[in-house]
Design goal:
Number of strands: 6
Number of domains: 5
Structural class: mainly alpha
Oligomer: single chain
Number of helices: 17
Order of helices and strands: HHHHHHEHHHHEHHHEEHHHEEH
Largest sheet: 2 strands, parallel
Radius of gyration: 39 Å
Distance between the termini: 104 Å
Strand content: under 5%
Shape: extended
Amino acid sequence: MPPRLGNAQRLLSSQRQITSSQSPLIYNSSTALSSSSISSPCRSLPQSRAFSSTPRVQAGPSLRQELIWWLKGPGSVFRNPLPGSTNYVSAYDDKGVLRRERHRRFEGEDAEEKNEGENEDEDISAERMEDLRPFPLNQTFHSQSVLSEELRNEIYEQVVTKGNSVRHVSVSFGIDMRRIGAVVRLVELEKRMRSEKKPLALPYARAIHQMVPLTPLAEKGELQRRHEPINDLPVHKLTDPQIFYPVSESRRFTRVDAARVFSAAPEVTEDKRDVPGNTPEAIAKITQAPHNIERVGKGANEQQVLQPADVRIPHPHLVAFEHDVIEFPSETRKRSQRYNDRLKAEMEKETLRKEKKKAREAAQLTRVQPENGRFEFRFRDVVVSRETTGLDGRGVKGVGRRYGVPHADRRRGEVKIPTKVEV
């Protein structure tokens, strides 16, 4: 049996009581065991070890204390934010000094410009690209600007009131045509809500406009700042595969030939091979008559031949304008006149094409209205064939055959709101 150490334990407890009453220091059992004043009838106990050999780390300031220090120090500049600026954290250094202000001082500007209050505020409020990072740890993300209220109202005025085309307004303000259509729809909805006396989230809108950069409306006589690129070309599905097409070195291989290769279309003839496809005449021939584009394939797989990028961009008439800049470098008035004539001709062709389409659809309808009736019945003849229903039976031209097949607009994720603006 192990030896009983009852006397030793009693001695240890009494020694602890004596030491704790004499000194306020922390008592350690190992010190008591090593003391020579303790006598035990049994053999001496082995010296005990501490639970961990790692020294205790001194606790630093808590997160709350660091936050309070930051609010009283570098973060105090956010109590009175700089007007007309986004005031992101990344725009200030660790001492609360505006980075672009420090950079401007290091550039060595004149002392008179530094003392002028208004000029200094105007220079400071203009953010740089480095100042538009709302997340300091994400250096690749930059906050994108939004349209100001004045610019949105001017776009609506140009499109709806003055009757300018969406394409013309897009080029004038440097805004994508899809955004122009969205602005017109939203402003129209806002006006309708005001007429119906519905509440608007104006405080929320003002708060958002203070947190993100804005694209303002230029003053009269000044050049309007562009909001975004307007000629971005989306990736076409026919250009996804990688094709190795052997071509002789003596042949002139252009964008038109590459587009026909992606479309699996036959080569152009010899008389059309050397005709450039990016001239103003060649571009207008396709943009003003898109129904004349060559088609390849059979049945449901029939599609138009892919056109070069000079034609597929949202504003192909800008390519023709650059041609005029090269041909007429010193005739600004003539270039502007040719540019306006192209837009006018394209609008006339587009209007005529829409009128013909409406007349053709009206001719296919049979309208029946009973006497003293409130409703009008409209009937349309439908041709049911493999060409109209398609291989999957969901063709939009063969409606009468689609019994039992759910319509595509009932699926989740389908766009059910208007996607274009009829002006």
